[in-house]
Amino acid sequence: MSETYSMPHLLLVMAALLVTAKLLGALAQRLGQPAVLGELVAGVLLGGSVLGLLDPADPVIRALAELGVIVLLFEIGLNTDLRSMTRVLGTATTVAIVGVVLPLGLGYAAGVGILGLDSIPALVCAAALTATSVGISARVLSDIGQLQSREGQVVLGAAVLDDIVGLIVLAAVTGVVTGGSWSVGGVVLTTVISIGFIVVALTAGRILTKPIFRSVEAIRTPGTLAALALAFALLLSSLAARSGSAMILGAFTAGLILNTAPGRAEIDRATTAIGHFLVPVFFASVGAAVTLSAFTETSTLAVAALLIAVGVVGKFVAAYAPWWFQGNKPLIGVAMIPRGEVGLIFAQMGLATRAISPSLFSALTLMVLVTTFLAPPVLARVGRGYKKRPVQDNSGIDDLVAGDWKEPSGPVPEAGTTE
After folding, report:
1. Which of 224, 222, 263 lies closest to 395 in space, CA to CA?
2. Model pLDDT, residue 317
3. CA separation for the pair 10, 54 (Å, rounded)
4. Which of 192, 329, 355, 405 has its CA 20 to 30 A from that of 58?
5. Which domains are delineated in the chain?
6. Residue 326 neighbours by CB distance under 10 Å
């Protein structure tokens, strides 16, 4: 085993990552910004552009980052009231569909008409603009106390639907780029699989898990209930991936199922404890994937600026598509902007298949970076009118999603209100 993958080196990297991410996260909060912004900056500092200590391509780091986003989405599901999401399903679906179609169309038109790209590179760029990083959006909404608001539920639902549509777009674009064929039937099948998995998992899970977890809770063995819950989240994540969907959708669905399960407080505590270790790895890895030296070419910056403009406008305008919704539409629009790791997947696919040039890949990376870094401070500003209250319970639950604050108990606030 080489020095890069030795255990002492891994321990050093993890120590530096956790300390830097937590310190910069705390500093970001002191400056009135969400903690995730500091964790992203920590990744940039530790990555190859500055210190060269954190390599996001390292198999161990990549595995820990993937576990981190699974834990994060599981925790988000645990803290999501499915009934609240159902009440805004029409709005979330509209935002999601428009938020995919508009950037895809504008991105392709800009790539061919303005940048003069061939159809395949333009298609890859347009596809990268369709994504929304549900992990980053949900974390920022949680940091500012908006996750349980109607706007937060719209964003969460739309971002999850974005992942489903994103899978379809990725499959179709990959087929085109690699010279394969794809059909309307194949696209429909991918859609049915993704949506069907969620429906079947929620239906069967709600029926089977309650008696099982109630029996386990009666055993009263420390840690057994929490371990079973996390195993359940990992199982659904694996099943989602094997069925052709996304692992994060499986983790999120597991959290939704266990939202009303017996012993949820214990599950929440265990997930939080593990999340404080794994989730910063995920966000730091997103930041570490950025290569700052690639942004010195004027042409790359010009292309990136156009992609950023299209990416921001396409997602922001989508928030105004559901005209009947009377809530804080700017908050929804900004929350849908960050591409995060999802956008990087599209860019890396294009580079690996040689569908795009290294310069175009750098432009896409800068688009992902700017949209990811732009959202947290702007979102904190547009959501500042929401009044947060300190946690009143003494259960000791340090909620990974909500941070040091929790939403007031009771009904979800009406759209446009601050209480």
Report:
1. 263
2. 92
3. 9
4. 355
5. 62-387 (1.20.1530.20)
6. 11
What is the pLDDT at residue 327? 81
The confidence score (pLDDT) of residue 365 equals 79
pLDDT grade for 191, boundaries at 50, 70 and 90: low
Rounded-to-integer distance, Cα 185 and Cα 306, Å: 34
Rounded Cα–Cα distance for residues 261 and 190 (Å): 30
Q: Which structure tokens are listed for 310? A: 């299209």
**Buried/exposed code over 373-391 (b: 16+ C-beta within 10 A; e: otherwise):** bbbbbbbbebbeebebeee
Please give the Cα distance from 16 to 281 (Å, whole number). Answer: 11
Q: What is the C-alpha to C-alpha distance for residues 95 and 158, in angstroms, rounded to an integer?
A: 6
Tokens of 108: 């392709």
Pairing state between β 389-390 and 405-406: antiparallel
User: For residue 102, which of 402, 310, 347 has the smallest C-alpha distance?
Assistant: 310
Would you state the torsion angle of the CA atoms of residues 339, 342, 345, 347, taken in this order, to the nearest 10 degrees? -20
What's the pLDDT score for residue 46?
93
DSSP assignment of 229-253, as one string? Answer: HHHHHHHHHHHHHHTTS-HHHHHHH
Q: Give the pair of three-digit tokens for residue 188.
A: 């429909």
4 DSSP 8-state letter: G
Split at pLDDT 50, 70, 90, the class of 396 is very low
Helix axes 35-46, 7-30, angle to 10 degrees: 140
Contacts for 138 with CB less than 8 Å, ≥ 6 apart: 72, 73, 76, 147, 155, 156, 159, 401
Output helix, strand, coil percentages for the chain, rounded to the nearest 5: 70, 0, 25
